[in-house]
Amino acid sequence: TMGISPGWGWLLLPVCQALVVPREVSSRAGETLSLRCWYPRGYEAYNKYWCRGASRDSCHKVVETVGREAPRQRGRVSIQDSHVFCVVLLTVEDVSEADAGSYWCGVERMGRDLMEPVTVRVVPG
Fold it and tell me: Rounded to whole angstroms, how far apart are CA atoms 41 and 43?
């Protein structure tokens, strides 16, 4: 799998410098998918979101932080922002094959949002 290993190894990545997501993550159906999105220093208080869709202009928001660190949940999907490490954690519980597809990590700002794409693959359980 292309996922980030559990534990603190992910902290070795260059934090707080750019918007970075893994290009692709995979999970087995029925399991919990975790996905991290790093963002540049200075955007801590901005709204971060995950949206789904093939293009950045047509994707629709799945969940957002509204600029806070408190976790927010919508159905099986939750999002949490760590301002210290400039990282947003997305968690999808009980993943199904319907969850596979194109997603974007976004930072809402004046003008054009910062957005990076990630592909979610789901392997049958």
Answer: 6
What is the b/e burial string over 4-41, where b = at least 16 CB atoms within 10 angstroms of the residue's CB?
A: eeeeeeeeeeebbeebbbbeebbbeeeeebebbbbbee
Closest Cα partner for 36 from 99, 100, 112, 92? 92
Place of tokens 């760590």: 82
Question: Tokens 């974007």 identify what position?
Answer: 104
* Partners of 124 in the β-ladder: none
Length of the chain: 125
As a whole number of angstroms, the longest Cα–Cα distance in the chain is 42
**Interval 8-66: pLDDT, tens:** 555 556 568 889 999 999 999 999 999 999 999 999 999 999 999 999 999 999 999 99
Q: Residues near 7 by Cβ (< 8 Å), separated by ≥ 6?
A: none
> What is the pTM for the complete model shown?
0.85
